[in-house]
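FORM 7B: Structural annotation worksheet

SECTION A. Query
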Amino acid sequence: MPKHGFKWRTQKLKELDEAELNVLLAPHGDHRVSARLGRWIYENLATSEVTKIRALECIAWDESAPWGNAYLWRELENHKSEPFGDWVVVALTRPGVDKARDAEKFVALYADPSAHELTRGSALFGLNNSVTLARFIRTDPLSPEVWTAVRDTCAKALNDRENAYARAGACWLAHQLGGFEGELESLANDTSKVPLYGETTVADFARAD
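SECTION B. Predicted structure
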């Protein structure tokens, strides 16, 4: 079967409608569209939010693309004031890549007043992912100062009465960090629904192990 170049592929992609693009971008076992092709689709063809998200995920999952992480952070900067910024964070926290290096950026994102509340809340989920990976690898990549900033951010988010999404993410992070038993117990009766999680409440996150 003949191999075709990148230009040929992009020309063929232009013939697909949005639904066909979504099928192409969806993961098929261990196979995904390359980061390069995902980026091209994201920048040139994707119009729906679903297609854009799947294209970003292709960039995030392709560990052979060293530029992917920086590209996603640039897109987050472009969209942090919109709900879509949350989905860029979701792509940034895909497993399989050392995300501990992003902890400081997630701390800054939560503190950014110009970011949408969903994007700010998503920063806590990103921190949880960073902490999980930092503890998994043998050499701790986070300095004591960063660990302190992570704990301080978690404490602030647990008490963020205006952002249920942030409180939920902070609950998961608190379980990872330890030492927040009192705060988690106080949130065990928080019936606020968590955005994007249907009927799930903050209390469900607080009680999760």
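SECTION C. Observations
The chain has two domains: 1-65, 80-209. The chain is about 65% helix and 0% strand.

SECTION D. Sign-off
Analyst initials: ____
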